[in-house]
Write a structure and sequence with these properties.
The chain is an all-alpha fold. The chain is built from 12 helices and no strands.
Length: 256
């Protein structure tokens, strides 16, 4: 994306308007509204406690699982929203002269806003589960930005391909549950035999979830390895997302 686009006030207004529209549509005619975003991780938390707690030797297991679940839901759901943003806004893209990048970016903004809203009640719950706030909370904002870069880049790459091959969206929803179990959200990496733990680090989601565990479970700053790898993965995702989007965006109108 050109520097002039990112500095354009009209582009910013369009992104904000689309993000607000996305949030309103998500909870339109919903009695519980934003609380539906809390229900999913709470249900999963109860299941994980029943299934995994007896095989883990993790102190404050509920806090460990909940902090992982909150950010897993954020990452996995946000990527899907970015992937489908072009298709979901096909009518707008065809009828109004908006830069196509407005749609994935607005989906990302809406996802962050939704996360921040749901974090308010979850913070209260996490305190009851043993969370101890300290200076490590300062790492949350920069790490959220890095995570958003990863989500936007990967979603932009897959979303661009999805315009031409709708199987991408279906493929993503098929494989993402496998990544849930391949990521140490509700189990400690030490649960695996030492010779197999390196496999976890082949999973890009590992570094993001483990960093959120650092901040909200271990009450410490993310390790240098976690932050460094997360930054590199985010930068690579943005790079390939940008390359794919720049190369194929001209064919969007005729394929959505």
């Amino acid at each position: 994306m050109s520097k002039s686009l990112l500095l354009n006030s009209g582009f910013h207004n369009a992104v904000l308007s689309l993000a607000i529209k996305t949030i309103k549509l998500r909870y339109k005619n919903s009695f519980l509204g934003i609380f539906w975003s809390m229900l999913n991780p709470l249900i999963f938390l109860l299941i994980l406690i029943l299934v995994f707690q007896h095989i883990n030797h993790i102190e404050h297991f509920a806090l460990y699982a909940l902090s992982g679940l909150i950010f897993w839901n954020f990452i996995s759901a946000s990527i899907l929203q970015v992937i489908t943003s072009f298709i979901d806004n096909a009518a707008i893209l065809k009828s109004i002269n908006l830069h196509p990048f407005s749609f994935p970016l607005s989906a990302m903004v809406a996802a962050i806003f939704n996360l921040l809203l749901t974090l308010i009640p979850f913070f209260i719950l996490m305190f009851f589960l043993g969370y101890q706030i300290n200076l490590s909370i300062l790492a949350f904002v920069p790490f959220l930005i890095v995570s958003a870069g990863f989500i936007l880049g990967l979603g932009l790459f897959l979303g661009t391909i999805n315009v031409f091959f709708r199987d991408i969206q279906l493929l993503w929803t098929t494989i993402i549950p496998a990544f849930f179990y391949f990521t140490p959200i509700a189990y400690a990496p030490e649960l695996l035999p030492e010779g197999q733990r390196f496999l976890l680090k082949l999973n890009p989601f590992y570094y993001f979830i483990d960093s959120f565990h650092d901040i909200f479970y271990r009450s410490q700053f993310p390790s240098f390895e976690n932050f460094g790898m997360s930054f590199l993965i985010a930068a690579f995702s943005l790079f390939i997302g940008y390359i794919a989007f720049k190369k194929y965006r001209k064919g969007f109108i005729s394929n959505i």
